[in-house]
Task: structure prediction
Amino acid sequence: MKTAIAASAVFLAAVAAAQTDFSKIEVKATPLGHGLAMLAGAGGNMVASAGEDGVFIVDDEFAELHPKIKEALAKMSDRPVRFVINTHWHGDHTGGNEKFAGDGAVVIAQDNVYKRMSTSQFIKHLNRAVPASPKGALPVVTFNDQATLHLNGDEIHLVHVANAHTDGDVLVHFPGADVLHMGDCFFNGQYPIIDTGTGGTIDGYVAAVEKGLSLAGPATKVVPGHGPLGDRAQLAEFGEMLKQARAAVAALKSAGKTLEETQAAKPTAALDEKWGKGFVKPEAFVRTIWETLP
Result:
């Protein structure tokens, strides 16, 4: 049950709060070496770094899990969290911002994350309005294309990939540790959500995976936003799936097929058995591709 929740891309804090008993969720740590660990609970996968300069985390899931995340971090270090990096604005990756900021952490994100979180949004995939986040949850430091942190013996590169899962996605690369956090630009083993309402596109998503592949080597540990810890080969396989699905949908749209006709033709049928059993079902995946094709 816990594994299914962690891997199923529960998308918004409000949805998860209504459907999840957080008291039963365990935040599990997978060591990545060099003082890093992947933490998985009930939202997007996190990466924690602990070392001589203190602790920082990439994403922070839901506010309800703040105590359990801190317990997991305490097993890595007795120091407080200095920084939180958000890979994008969705509530299952930023829900703990206000709690960690209240503890003294500085929240860092791409410029568009601040813009999305500071105003009300509408997530088309779920047909759900999302109110603006409280001031205490907002990023304090934002950047445009890239930023670098010099912490715990590594240069951590924050790389913005435009209009992929959203318009504010960031890949977080730890070159010294050979770890890459893809955020929701990688759903390991399943079709991804492409949030078309806040800037996501299929072409931007493919480009984000290509950027990730350019940063990853054969031994790189690749952390997905959702799903189990992956590697470069799995990221490449995911990217090929995206390209095949895009080509199949594009052929039908170019032939003048409507969205409904395209969905009825089942252009991803050859891929559905492997990729279509996660949170995003084939028909919804086809729709988001069709809607964002030129």
User: Anything to note?
Assistant: The chain is about 35% helix and 25% strand.
